[in-house]
């Protein structure tokens, strides 16, 4: 794993600064050989959102299970305009008549079973009841306004493939197929820690030269939203032996995620501590801004991903690397990272060499226009909070001008279902 992360001679220096590894090849190296966790559970539908389906599911009956009316109206026995004699009224859920004979029509509400003999349903808005109670209807095509048995899913057809991360849409499909519980993979277990002598636990009173640990709550929430069970290993000092001790007990997790202490100064002990704990790993400089220094490794069963300490860099690293790692471990395909094409509302001076992600806001308009929020900086959280998402600039881009195309990644997707 380590050697694969070294930049190849062809890679270095072509579209990024020499010696830096592209995000793409770093991600490929991180995911190389990662297999899904074993172990399954059966969970009720009410707890299945966010879990990964462990086995393919098929429909044991057609959906819908019977022909039914798509509208409030009248079931007709022929396509002609009538007049028809009305022979009853049937709401959704009722049995309906045994048979409707030629020349007859039946009142049907949306969702009602189509009785034998009915070949189309006329919407009530287009119908008229004559004096004497007979029905006049528009001429209809055979099958109009009828939802056919099995038109959504045929009996025995595949419902969902294994490896799908279930979201509210899937729960609706599974419920409509009569399922109340589903087989899912066990959740991945991720250990999370922060390191740094300058860090204070959330809520602790400020002391001189210290700041609060803002990465741990952010990363814990982000990893949990990716479906992982997060175990907090806490806040560790800049002491190699203490960090090694904490890591040594974490080899049974599926992944260990840390932030801080990865840039290689005399106070950065994560990589050394990983080795002391019996693991292996390597330091990598990624062609990424923010988020250049990164440590990947392995300790026992656990894949290790140590992110930089600056909070925006930690977030970007978690989105680009931890998310796909957790997806692969959880047994579903990492979602391809594809942003929306957007135009810059304003440019800025920059040097080519590193792919860049910046907090950005959407401008109203017919086209998607985005603009960086606030002053750039990997330690500034307020632009991140004010932003609608992150914009991405490719590594080769130099100074940017208003109107240039970039990619935009909204934080909440469009509807945020998954
Ligand atoms: N001479 C160089 N110095 C630095 C470079 C470089 O290339 N040459 N890179 C800079 C970049 S870029 C980053 S990012 C950081 C990464 O450093 P570390 O991962 O070793 O992180 P620390 O030094 O521990 O912390 C950096 C910064 O972030 C603060 N921090 C750390 N953890 C947290 C936390 N949990 N919550 C909030 N803030 C945190 C820490 O106090 C530092 O201010 O290195 C640069 N330096
Ligand atoms: O790359 Mo650092 O990760 O810019 O803040």
UniProtKB/TrEMBL annotation:
CDD domains, sorted: MoeA
UniProt function note: Catalyzes the insertion of molybdate into adenylated molybdopterin with the concomitant release of AMP.
PROSITE patterns: MOCF_BIOSYNTHESIS_2 (PS01079)
Pfam families attached to this UniProt entry: MoCF_biosynth, MoeA_C, MoeA_N
Native source species: Belnapia arida
InterPro entries, A to Z: MoaB/Mog-like_dom_sf, MoaB/Mog_dom, MoCF_biosynth_CS, MoeA-like, MoeA_C_domain_IV, MoeA_C_domain_IV_sf, MoeA_linker/N, MoeA_linker/N_sf
Name of the featured protein: Molybdopterin molybdenumtransferase
Keyword Transferase among UniProt keywords: yes
Uppermost EC category: transferase
Pathway participation: Cofactor biosynthesis; molybdopterin biosynthesis
EC number: 2.10.1.1
Domain annotation MoaB/Mog: ranges: 191-328
Co-factor requirement: Mg(2+)
């Amino acid at each position: 794993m380590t050697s694969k992360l070294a930049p190849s001679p062809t890679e270095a220096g072509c579209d990024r600064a020499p010696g830096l590894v592209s995000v793409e090849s770093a991600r490929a190296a991180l995911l190389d050989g990662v297999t899904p966790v074993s172990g399954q559970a059966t969970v009720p539908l009410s707890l299945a959102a966010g879990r990964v389906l462990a086995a393919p599911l098929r429909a044991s009956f057609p959906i819908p299970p019977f022909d039914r009316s798509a509208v409030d109206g009248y079931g007709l026995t022929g396509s002609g305009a009538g007049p028809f004699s009305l022979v009853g009224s049937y709401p959704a859920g009722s049995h309906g008549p045994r048979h409707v004979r030629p020349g007859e029509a039946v009142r049907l509400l949306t969702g009602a079973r189509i009785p034998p003999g009915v070949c189309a349903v006329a919407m009530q808005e287009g119908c008229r009841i004559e004096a004497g109670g007979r029905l006049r209807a528009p001429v209809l095509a055979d099958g109009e306004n009828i939802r056919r048995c099995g038109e959504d899913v045929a009996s025995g057809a595949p419902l969902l493939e294994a490896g799908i991360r279930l979201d509210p849409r899937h729960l609706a499909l599974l419920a409509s197929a009569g399922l109340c519980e589903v087989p899912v993979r066990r959740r991945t277990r991720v250990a999370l820690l922060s390191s740094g002598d300058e860090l204070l636990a959330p809520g602790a009173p400020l002391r001189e030269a210290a700041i609060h640990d803002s990465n741990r709550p952010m990363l814990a929430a982000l990893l949990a939203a990716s479906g992982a069970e997060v175990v907090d290993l806490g806040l560790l000092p800049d002491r190699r032996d203490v960090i090694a001790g904490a890591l040594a007990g974490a080899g049974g997790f599926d992944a260990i995620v840390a932030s801080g202490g990865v840039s290689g100064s005399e106070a950065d002990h994560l990589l050394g501590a990983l080795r002391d704990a019996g693991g292996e790993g390597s330091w990598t400089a990624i062609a990424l801004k923010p988020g250049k220094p990164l440590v990947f490794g392995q300790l026992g069963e656990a894949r290790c991903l140590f992110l930089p300490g600056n909070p925006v860099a930690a977030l970007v690293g978690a989105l680009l690397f931890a998310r796909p790692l957790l997806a692969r471990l959880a047994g579903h395909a990492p979602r391809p990272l594809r942003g929306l094409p957007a135009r810059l509302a304003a440019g800025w001076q920059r040097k080519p060499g590193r792919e860049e992600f910046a907090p950005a806001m959407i401008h109203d308009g017919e086209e998607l226009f985005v603009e960086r929020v606030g002053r750039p900086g990997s330690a500034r959280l307020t632009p991140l909070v004010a932003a609608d998402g992150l914009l991405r600039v490719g590594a080769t881009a130099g100074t940017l001008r208003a109107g240039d195309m970039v990619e935009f990644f909204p934080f909440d997707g469009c509807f945020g279902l998954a």
